[in-house]
Write a structure and sequence with these properties.
Elements lengths: L2 H16 L2 H7 L1 E2 L7 H7 L3 E4 L10 H16 L8 E4 L17 H7 L2 H17 L4 E2 L23 H16 L13 E4 L36 H6 L9 E2 L3 H17 L4 E4 L3 E2 L2 E2 L4 H11 L5 E3 L12 H11 L4 E2 L4 H13 L5 H17 L21 H13 L2 E5 L12 E5 L6 H5 L19 H8 L4 E5 L8 E9 L17 H11 L2 E9 L9 H4 L2 E4 L11 H5 L55
Bound molecules: beta-D-glucopyranose (2 copies).
Length: 626
């Protein structure tokens, strides 16, 4: 051990020796900001507070975020021992809860590019924006490997190749760190969701009891979902069939595929891991002592702390005391209790007093949390507010340039019959159809401003249509959101998008293009010589007849706030370079198309295979038009 490590360890131990049981439990408790006040943090010495998806202050401005977070942090400083608070947010593609922050492509798009240097820069910019609002912890990166792409969290992962996922996750962790973990703009990563969140089988999710709950408002978490569609209709389409479900892969696959990226991300210095809602052969990860304690903390020598997922321990048992006891004993160190955190504190205290949870387990958990705080420099003044990045870094042009680069490079060219792309600058007219061509919310997807995201101008950004206007100044753009005009054009561009979703709300029974999109494509096909289809989606979608109807097909994923950049490869201002990291199905009935192992449907042929992605050369080293 280095002398510094020894000294710091001594400081953590000295602090631990002064803490009461109740103060230790306070460090292990993480309420949501809407359920706890700064006074609660002071009185109960709470160790952490979270803003859930959409857990924003009013108004949702960087200034209000900073004031809110500093309010909680100052209260922690005024608690008896003054242990600094860790505030956590889901900055999963930029500081995405904050209106005006830079929104980067979701990980599915970054995976398609596969450039660790870019991922590192994305993470660095994200860290700067998050730290500017007083926050030092993000629940990212997800190292999810989606097996069944009907899973609503497919876009949170980089793809199906464990080696690539590990490499990009490590780069992301390095980017969150920057020069040093203790610098005021470094963020604590949370590598998630441990383990094999992406391997849940369709039909095994038990999150939602349809018989017991009739509407969203019956469930305090789902009440946050603010759906555009009717909830029962979304359930009929397959919501909550996969997410949080059961994994039945064998131990070898578990290690070689799903554990591998954790090794890479932890080696890069991540001191936090989030447990998965799911289960393995029926045993929930939140009570999986073998995986959390023997494998993660033992075999992998993980020195950080494990945080539970949102209210996840509540699912372990009808008896809440049993939930608390089993999760903490299994190795959960900090518990995300969004709502009734007092009940959690009381239950854990009672469990220790009756000997059901050993004090040594509590001490170990608290030590791990304090070590992470120590590593972030929180005991050494790294959280002096004046040292933090200025608020103008939120949405800063330097960061938008990185997001622009990522959005430009992430589209995958799946098909290009007759070299339909790139569109020539001499094109007299282009029919641009589909509302998604000009909609920042649709191109950002879930986890943007609100948990589910939403269509519309939800945050500042640019769109594909703006990019086309910029790059094709001499082309007449015939803009028809519904494609119901009648004039012909030499070329047409149809942009379709999945409606935004997050987590299990985005699980589906099938991934067929909705009928409205198919008929839009058919209508435009009849009016143009060359048809280009751009798909904004968090995962492959089943193209059906559109696979033949379109001359060129571009999977543009969820590019984020800088959507104008997507125009660049389309017009040849840049080349296509990205490749597919998940298998793309021909038919929904073939799903899941497992990328490995002798699993169901392993024999089905995909429409596009992993590694596909056509390349194009730019027209010229085109200069930016004025
Ligand atoms: C998600 C996590 C997220 C947490 C906090 C949960 O619903 O599963 O990925 O980090 O909420 O917002
Ligand atoms: C700094 C810039 C930096 C930007 C983004 C600003 O506060 O002045 O130099 O590029 O933050 O991090």
């Amino acid at each position: 051990m280095t002398p510094t490590a020894t000294r710091n360890q001594g400081r953590v131990d000295a602090l631990l020796a002064r803490m009461t049981l109740r103060e230790k439990i306070g460090q292990m408790t993480q309420p949501e900001k809407n359920s706890a006040t700064p006074d609660d943090v002071r009185a109960h010495a709470l160790g952490s507070v979270i803003s859930g998806g959409g857990g924003n202050p009013e108004p949702n401005t960087p200034e209000a975020w900073r004031a809110m977070v500093l309010g909680f942090r100052e209260a922690a400083r005024e608690s008896r021992l003054g242990i600094p608070l860790l505030y956590g947010v889901d900055a999963v593609h930029g500081h995405n809860n904050v209106v005006g922050a830079t929104v980067f492509p979701h990980n599915v798009g970054l995976g398609a590019i596969g450039d660790p240097d870019l991922v590192r820069r994305v993470a660095r910019a994200t860290a700067r924006e998050v730290a500017a609002t007083g926050v030092r912890w993000t629940f990212a990166p997800a190292v999810s490997i989606p097996v069944d792409v009907r899973w609503g969290r497919t876009y949170e992962g980089y793809g199906q190749d464990p080696e690539l996922v590990g490499r990009l996750a490590a780069a992301y962790v390095e980017g969150l760190r920057g020069v040093d973990w203790a610098s005021p703009d470094a963020l604590l990563p949370s590598v998630k969701h441990f383990l094999a969140d992406g391997a849940a089988r369709h039909g095994t999710s038990t999150r939602w009891d349809r018989a017991a709950v009739k509407s969203l408002s019956d469930d305090p978490t789902l009440a946050n979902a603010h759906l555009a569609a009717d909830f029962l209709e979304v359930l009929d389409r397959g919501a909550w069939t996969i997410d949080q479900g059961d994994v039945d892969v064998d131990e070898r696959t578990m290690r070689e595929v799903f554990l591998a990226p954790y090794r890479a991300a932890l080696a890069a210095g991540a001191l936090n891991v989030m447990a998965s809602y799911g289960s393995w052969h029926g045993l929930r990860m939140h009570e999986h002592r073998h995986l959390l304690t023997d494998v993660l903390k033992g075999e992998l020598s993980f020195e950080g702390f494990v945080v539970s997922d949102w209210a996840a321990i509540d699912q372990l048992d009808p008896d809440y005391e049993a939930c608390v006891e089993r999760s903490v004993n299994a190795g959960i160190d900090m518990v995300m209790v969004p709502f009734d955190w007092r009940r959690f504190m009381d239950a854990l205290e009672a469990a220790v007093e009756r000997g059901a949870v050993p004090l040594a387990r509590i001490d170990d958990a608290v030590r791990r949390i304090l070590v992470a705080k120590e590593r972030l420099g929180l005991f050494d003044g790294a959280d002096e507010p004046e040292l933090e990045p200025p608020l103008d870094v939120v949405g800063h042009p330097d960061h938008r340039r990185i997001a622009h680069e990522a959005a430009r490079r992430s589209p995958v060219l799946l098909k290009n019959r007759g070299e339909a792309l790139p569109l020539p600058p001499t094109l007299p007219a282009l029919l641009v159809a589909g509302a998604a061509a000009d909609d920042v919310g649709l191109q950002c997807g879930g986890w943007t401003v609100s948990w589910m995201g939403a269509a519309g101008p939800i945050t500042p950004g640019t769109t594909l249509l703006q990019g086309l206007r910029r790059w094709l100044p001499d082309t007449e753009l015939m803009v028809e959101p519904d494609g119901r005009g009648s004039a012909r054009a030499p070329a047409g561009l149809v942009v379709v998008a999945e409606e935004p979703y997050a987590e299990g709300m985005g699980d589906r029974h099938d991934l067929d293009l909705p009928a409205v999109d198919v008929s839009l494509i058919e209508r435009v096909r009849a009016r143009v010589d060359t048809l280009v289809l751009v798909v904004y989606s968090g995962r492959p979608v089943v193209l059906g007849a559109a696979a033949q109807l379109a001359d060129a097909i571009v999977a543009a994923w969820l590019p984020g706030s800088e959507g104008a950049a997507v125009a660049e490869p389309l017009v040849g201002a840049s080349g296509f370079e990205a490749t597919l990291r998940t298998r793309w199905p021909i038919r929904s009935a073939d799903l899941p198309l497992h990328p490995f192992g002798a699993e169901p449907h392993a024999g089905a042929r995909p429409l596009f295979e992993i590694g596909q992605g056509l390349r194009t050369a730019p027209w010229s080293d085109a200069t930016t038009p004025a």
